[in-house]
Amino acid sequence: MNKKAVATGFFLLSFLFPLRASAASFSNIYVFGDSLSDQGNVFNATGGAIPPSPPYSEGSFSNGLVWVDYLAQDLGLEVNPFVGNVDLTEGINFAFGGATTGVENTISLTFPQLPPLPGLEQQIDFFTNLPPVADPDALYIIWAGANDYGPTDGTFVPFEDPDTTIVNISQAVTSLANVGAQNIMVVNLPDLGKTPVSLNTPESEELSALVDAHNAALEELSESFDPALNLILFDVSEGIDQLFAAPQEFGFTNVTTPCLLVQSCVANPDEQNQYLFWDDRHPTTAAHQYVGDLALAALNAEDPTGVPEPASAMGLLAIGALGTGSVLKRKKRDRSCQVLVKTDLK
């Protein structure tokens, strides 16, 4: 049957750490998307120009690992960037910062002097042109759409409704399924109106409404696929909303200011862990870890055969809560850093 990942609040995450080995056993991970999932594709493709390291961690649009790093570690798997990677026996990350759900890439359209970078459509093509048949036991992840809607300094014109984006995501899922992918996780969008680049701007409320429409359409889209497809809709939006509502409960003291704009934060890794945002639209690695844990919780909730390792009673209660929660039917800045903070790098 068509599976839908259970959305759960971040307040549960502290109880989930003992349960990390209980998710379904996947053979590999393949990732498609934008800078939120990019482990080094843009960095490798641009010879280390974007994102510059420092201040960014080498390869990621953050100050450390991104959420798919944490999820892969928790699942005991390995996933590596596509650029420069030819080992098909390990998971591959095809996500490129700047990718839209189509063929456009906002980094390429902002910095045309750089090598052309792909959108989601080309990423899917890269994969479907590699193996003759996709591994049915692997986990395939699609998280894209933010660059379709968010502000950009380049020539890309953001979409005003989710129609094209949803069609593109539908085609991506269909293309993967057509080559044999069976386990496909599709991630919805957090509130883009609350990112520092958009917060307190006239466009903030409009972006928030657009994300709501996107997420609702994504939910409806799930009903159109073959019920035999294990389509997992990961409702990251609800978890991020709860983090915004009570950040201190999750160890964050600032959810509005980019760490890169605060000298003490850039110089202090401990302070960095208290910030939700690294730049004006990308999360810190601490926030990425929360997303990775939430994704693991969603996979646990979707695995009817997964048996938790011995855990505390609170851990077991957390799993119970997962089953009854809401559901989504779901370091000093140089000039180059200042430029990047102003550009659309998602």
From TrEMBL:
Keywords: Hydrolase, Signal
Secretion signal span: 1-23
Stored Gene3D superfamilies: SGNH hydrolase
Pfam family, one: Lipase_GDSL
GO molecular function: hydrolase activity, acting on ester bonds
Domain Ice-binding protein C-terminal: 307-330
PANTHER family noted in UniProt: GDSL LIPASE/ACYLHYDROLASE FAMILY PROTEIN (AFU_ORTHOLOGUE AFUA_4G14700), GDSL LIPASE_ACYLHYDROLASE FAMILY PROTEIN (AFU_ORTHOLOGUE AFUA_4G14700)
Database matches in NCBIfam families: PEP_CTERM (TIGR02595)
Name of the protein described by the UniProt record: PEP-CTERM sorting domain-containing protein
Species, as recorded: Symplocastrum torsivum CPER-KK1
